Amino acid sequence: MWIKICGIRDLPTARAVIEAGADALGFNFYTPSPRAVVVEVAREIVAQLPDHVDAVGLFVNHSLEFVRETSRHCGLRAVQLHGDESPEFVAQVAKEFPVIRAFRVGDSGLGEVEEYLTRLSELGVTLRAAIVDAKVAGAYGGTGHTAPWDLLKAGWNREKWPPLVLAGGLTPVNVQQAIGVVRPWGVDVAGGVESAVACKDPAMVREFVSRAREAGGRICS
Q1: Helices H, strands E: what count in the chain?
Q2: Closest to 142 (Cα-Cα) out of 60, 203, 216
Q3: Which of 26, 79, 157, 208 has its CA 20 to 30 A from that of 43?
Q4: What is the CATH number for 205?
Q5: Digitized pLDDT (tens) for each residue of the chain, 221 residues in all
Q6: Within 10 Å of residue 217's Cβ, how many Cβ atoms?
Q7: What range does the domain containing 174 cover?
Q8: Which of the residues are catalytic?
Q9: Chain Cα centroid distance, residue 9
């Protein structure tokens, strides 16, 4: 079970997340978000991460130049595109960095996701993973709403589509249930492990990671 904690903004938090056993740290460069991080701060944090921890940069409708330059400058290991980026845009980024594409899914189903992934396949792009978040009008993520678990369980094409990373409204309380229903490759959380907006709670992070690992072990056994 791949576990990513998103919205890292300072080194003490990064260290606490690593000590909790997370596989990846997410750095949000979308400035309207309360979890946004300054580029130079992200660079300083990434420089001190151990080799086994992935540094993932989250971008929302940024220019190709900004995505490339920021990712190089910070030493990111993967790029997470969380906005309205086209498959063609993804293909340009994927020439240099592993790409994790985020999709917002509601009760209307996975038709748009299928069309998008089909186009990526036509362009010769293989995503590292696909993050599925809840679809909320006017928001790109971080809403606290859960994605449609049953729909993902029934509709995600595990043979043809990228590894599924479940996001959206996950907490230490519900992560085991979510993993048991959806059986994702990974999970992604930001607000669900915070004591206040943009402030990660080390105890909540540890509990989230522990419970996710336990649930992941059950679905693999």
Answers
A1: 8, 10
A2: 60
A3: 208
A4: 3.20.20.70
A5: 999 999 999 999 999 999 999 999 999 999 999 999 999 999 999 999 999 999 999 999 999 999 999 999 999 999 999 999 999 999 999 999 999 999 999 888 999 999 999 999 999 999 999 999 987 666 566 667 899 999 999 999 999 999 999 999 999 999 999 999 999 999 999 999 999 999 999 999 999 999 999 999 888 76
A6: 11
A7: 2-220
A8: 6, 133
A9: 16
